[in-house]
Specification:
Helix content is 31%, strand content 23%. The chain is α/β, with parallel strands linked by helices. The protein starts with a strand and ends with a helix.
C-alpha cells in the first residue's frame, strides 16, 4: 500500500520462561496508513503491549524473542537496522507513551530536562533551544512552562501522563504508540487527554496506535480497530463497521459486557470463563472453550483469516462456512 506508514507482517513473539514457552504474539498482520489511528483492543494478556514493544524493538531479551515476521516502517524493515540506526528512529520518528508514566519517567531528573534530552539527541538542538522547546511542549499539553523545573513526583497521575505525551511528541513523530494512555485517570482528565491526542493528529498528521481495553476510547478516537485474543487478531476493520456489526463471537461478547443506555436489560451478558494459560493454549481456535457458538471442528482446527466484507477480516470457522446451519447474517 502506497499510503501505508506501518506494516506488520506475520509477527510472532515468544517469551521463554521457567514454566514453558509463552506465545505472546502469533502471526500478527496489520497495516496503518498515514494520518490514521488504530485501536488495539483485548483483555489483559492478549499481547497488545508486546506487539507495540516489538514495533519499537524493545521486547526484553531474554526472556522475549521475535521469532518471525517483519515490521516495515515507511517501507523500511526495522529488523534489519543496527541498534544505533534504530535508536535514531525510536523516540524521533516513532514514539511511545508507556502505560505507567511514573515508572517511565526518570525520578531524579526534572521533567523539562527529560524532554530537553530527547530533542538534543534527535533534533540536534543546542541547550537553549531545547529548553524553549521543552516549555512549548509542556504548554501544548496544558502544563505551565515554569513547571519544567519540577520532578515527576511533584505531578499528579494525569499531569505525569501529559508529560509523557509531551516527551513523546517533542520530536514530531510520524507514529505515536499510546499504551493505555488513560489508565488510572479520572474521567475528566481522560477526556482532556483524548481531546489532546485528537488535536495533535489534526495539527501534525501523526499516525497513532492506541492500546486499550476500553471500547469507548476506541469509538472516540480511532479510525480502525483490531480485536486481539490470546496473542492473535480475531477481528479487524473500521470502527464504524466493527461497532455497528461485530462478527467474531469474542467481539460480540465484549460488546455484550458493556451497558447500553438505549436498552433496558436487567443483567449484562459477560463472556464465560477466563483467558487461557499462555503456556498451554487450547488446540484449534483459542476462543472455543469460552465460545457459545463453538462446534467440534473449533477444537481441532485453527481458523483461517476470512474477509466476509470489504475491509473486514475475521478469524472464525463460521465465516469459512465450516459451521453448518449457522446464518451469519442473522446472528451478526
Amino acid at each position: 500500500m502506497a499510503s501505508a506508514l506501518l506494516q506488520i507482517q506475520d509477527l510472532k513473539v515468544e517469551y521463554h520462561t521457567e514454566d514453558g514457552i509463552v506465545t505472546a504474539v502469533d502471526n500478527l498482520s496489520l497495516d496503518l496508513n498515514k494520518g490514521e489511528t488504530l485501536g488495539l483492543v483485548g483483555e489483559t494478556g492478549a499481547g497488545k503491549t508486546t506487539s507495540a514493544l516489538a514495533v519499537m524493538r524493545l521486547v526484553p531479551a531474554p526472556p522475549g524473542k521475535v521469532i518471525s515476521g517483519r515490521v516495515l516502517f515507511d517501507g523500511q524493515d526495522l529488523s534489519t537496522l543496527k541498534a544505533e540506526e534504530m535508536r535514531l528512529i525510536r523516540g524521533n520518528r516513532i514514539s511511545m507513551i508507556f502505560q505507567d508514566p511514573m515508572t517511565s519517567l526518570n525520578p531524579v531528573m526534572t521533567v523539562g530536562r527529560q524532554i530537553e534530552e530527547a530533542v538534543e539527541l534527535h533534533q540536534k538542538m543546542d541547550n537553549k533551544t531545547a529548553k524553549a522547546r521543552a516549555g512549548e511542549m509542556l504548554k501544548l499539553v496544558g502544563i505551565p512552562a515554569a513547571r519544567a523545573a519540577d520532578y515527576p513526583h511533584e505531578f499528579s497521575g494525569g499531569m505525569r501522563q501529559r508529560v509523557g505525551i509531551a516527551m513523546a511528541l517533542s520530536c514530531n513523530p510520524e507514529l505515536l504508540i499510546a499504551d493505555e494512555p488513560t489508565t488510572a485517570l479520572d474521567v475528566t482528565i481522560q477526556a482532556q487527554v483524548l481531546e489532546l491526542m485528537k488535536r495533535l493528529r489534526t495539527e501534525f498528521g501523526t499516525s497513532m496506535i492506541i492500546i486499550t481495553h476500553d471500547l469507548g476510547i476506541v469509538a472516540e478516537a480511532c479510525d480502525k480497530v483490531a480485536i486481539m485474543y490470546a496473542g492473535a487478531v480475531v477481528e479487524y476493520g473500521t470502527v464504524e463497521s466493527v461497532f455497528n456489526r461485530p462478527l467474531h463471537p469474542y467481539t460480540r461478547g465484549l460488546f455484550g459486557s458493556i451497558p447500553n443506555i438505549a436498552e433496558d436489560v436487567e443483567r449484562l451478558t459477560p463472556i464465560p470463563g477466563l483467558m487461557p494459560d499462555p503456556t498451554d493454549l487450547p488446540y484449534g481456535c483459542r476462543f472455543h472453550p469460552r465460545c457459545p457458538m463453538a462446534r467440534e471442528i473449533c477444537s481441532t482446527q485453527t481458523p483461517a483469516i476470512s474477509t466476509p466484507e470489504d475491509g473486514r477480516t475475521v478469524a472464525c470457522m463460521i465465516y469459512e462456512g465450516l459451521v453448518p446451519g449457522y446464518d451469519t447474517e442473522e446472528k451478526a
